[in-house]
What we know:
The chain has nine helices and eight strands. The chain has helices at residues 3-10, 19-24, 29-37, 63-70, 78-84, 145-154, 160-171, 178-187, 192-201, and strands at residues 16-18, 42-46, 52-55, 75-76, 95-100, 114-119, 128-132, 139-143. α5 (78-84) packs antiparallel against α6 and α6 (145-154) runs antiparallel to α7 (160-171).
Amino acid sequence: MDVDSLMPKLFQLNAIFTTSEAKAVGxxxxxxxxxxxxGEVARFGTGRAGVQLWTNESYxxxxxxxxxxRYPKAVISGQTALSWWxxxxxxxxxxxxxxxxxxxxxxxxxxxIVSIHHVDERYYPIGLTSVRxxxxxxxxxIYDPERSLIDAFRFKTIAKYDRNQAVRNYFQSELCxxxxxxxxxxxLPGRSDLQKITEVLGH
Length: 203
């Protein structure tokens, strides 16, 4: 089987994929190595539990997905999440990631300045959701708008201007769900966050 006939199978996969995912669409390791030789696929590295990761570099370049495949409990949060939900105008200048306390993840990546936030395991799943990437190359873990808004007041790295803009944009958007926001504030520690949010609305 030549490289051209392998390409339709390759395009069934996410930008970054495992050997078993490739095998499921009919690409054995032999064919993967053939694609590597042709420059269509590259060995990306090793994921959790020693799983071999591959990337179709000519198809997509999704750094967030790459990080998540290596660290599946990492959740996009903070400034990055606010930007994703269009609650702030500013493009994120670093990558905010939240992980359960004790979960090991580096603070440096090749293309990103990363800020790691550790939370208690019981607070970690609150507001956790998933979204598709713009390239539709896979799904990403991210906190929903309500959790992102609360974290804006919890993370010291987020500027006051961004916090205030996020609050106003949230309550003026179709995303607004005050009951959910109130429930999260009651579930998460530091209930003064509610007072801070309402103070912004009052100005």
